[in-house]
Amino acid sequence: MEPALTAPAPAAPPRPAHRRWPVAVVLASVMFLVLFDSLAVATALPQIATEFDVAPDRLQWVITLYSLSIGGFLLLGGRVCDLWGRRRLIVASLIVNTVGLIVAGVAATLLPLLVGRVLQGLGAAFAIPAALASAAALFPDEPWRSRVFAVIAGAGNTAGLAGAVCGGLITSYWGWRWIFLAVVPVAAVAALASARLLPPDPPPVGERSLDVAGAVLATGGLLALIYGATRSSEQGPTPSAVAVLAAGLFLLAILVPLERRIRHPLLKPALLRSRSLMASCLAFAAHSASYAAVVVVGSLYLQQVHRLSAAQTGLVLAPVLLAALVSSVPAGTLIRRYGPRTVVAVALVLCATTLTAVALVSGSPLPVVVALLFAWGLSAGPIYVALTREGIGNATPEDRGTASALFESTTHVGGAISVAVFLTMLGAGAAFGTVQLVGAVAAGLGIVATIALMPGRSSPAA
């Protein structure tokens, strides 16, 4: 049985010129809030382990449950956004996220901390597609469309940078609880600002239904894929991990023919036929693998080869995120001048080239490696801006939430699988340079997908 939900009208009134920047900042703050703790919490794990006296195999659930909650529920969040309304979902998601922050921050044992992390992940899974869909709907024209996606990309990079740098400082001076509690007033203000500044959701234009069967299959399939990949990266490709991965693929395989027969599917077949969206998803998955080769493999390389501490490694990798933040600023201008396909293809070529250089100079003096990693960050900045503008901006208004969720799902699935492959290779004795070359090859596959599938110039947004 499919519960009926009221669908909002596809169009939204344009924002007055003087309200554009406040709205862009609100949407960027949503992305910042849901991504900041994803990296900051990692720096607090040793202190959490000491206070709760838990073993590492239990402590890893603080990270894993958050990742599973985001990646597993993104598609459902995107469809609910299309049915329920963007502003409603953003405000509700920020409230859920705030509750999760409070529960985690005041947790007296590990269990409520894990509950808080699940609530944070669920809030993020519903907030991310709503924020991206709002950006595409409220800024239909250039230069503002590219500009707002650049602001959102900058917020994401800033969140990663702040999480990596500030997480350790907050934990050292205030304690791990303040990683959560310090964000609570910011999240509350963001929820109020979203309710005040974002335009009301359009009135309903008819009845639609939530595809419950599709939601169960999609959520179960994504959860199984991400969990199986995560376990493979931690323990190797054990039979149980491979079985979970196979189960995830099986559930997603069942989803495709089911959606063709459902009147109101969770994932419309037309979305899977969109060249812009499919090219963006494939390129983003490839870029996520390249990113994992830089950050995850690079972190291990810096600690094992150059003997850096975890804190020193974070400081060395922080310029990578800073470089991506800087290069995302002119991305809108480049996209308007050359088109998304050219910008993405060139950026991926530069990413593949610099990552290849990192692999070839493995063992070289640290300044050389840091300079090449910084160059990779400069190359990566425009990619997210161009892909979101192309894949989400060109989706039909009533499907932008689902398109945003499908796009974001690729980075969680692609990132989890690539990390599992890279760590398995390292565990089998592969050299760091060899693994990083595989990351460069993944970026190369993204180039092929971009050139083969993405239209040369964006079609006008529906």
Quick overview:
The protein is 79% helix and 2% strand.
Radius of gyration: 21 Å
CATH topology of the largest domain: Growth Hormone, Chain: A
Largest sheet: 2 strands, antiparallel
- Name the structural class: mainly alpha
**Which strands sit side by side, in order, in the main sheet?**
1-2
* Strand residue percentage: under 5%
Number of domains: 3
Averaging pLDDT over every residue, what do you get? 84
CATH class of the largest domain: Mainly Alpha
Inertia-based shape: globular
Count the beta strands.
2
The CATH superfamily of the largest domain is identified as: MFS general substrate transporter like domains
Low-confidence stretches: 1-18
Taken in chain order, the helices and strands follow as EHHHHHHHHEHHHHHHHHHH
How many helices? The count is 18
End-to-end separation in angstroms reads: 31 Å
Helix content bin? over 70%
Explained architecture:
There is one protein chain. By secondary structure, the protein is mainly α. It has three domains: 19-206, MFS general substrate transporter like domains (Growth Hormone, Chain: A); 211-265; 268-462, Growth Hormone, Chain: A. The chain has helices spanning 20-52, 56-59, 61-84, 86-105, 110-138, 144-173, 178-181, 184-197, 212-235, 239-261, 269-272, 275-304, 310-328, 331-338, 340-360, 366-391, 400-427, 432-453; strands at 4-8, 204-209. Strands 1-2 form a two-stranded antiparallel ribbon. Mean pLDDT is 84; it is low at 1-18. Pfam families: MFS_1. Keywords: Cell membrane, Membrane, Transmembrane, Transmembrane helix, Transport. One of its GO terms (cellular component) is plasma membrane.
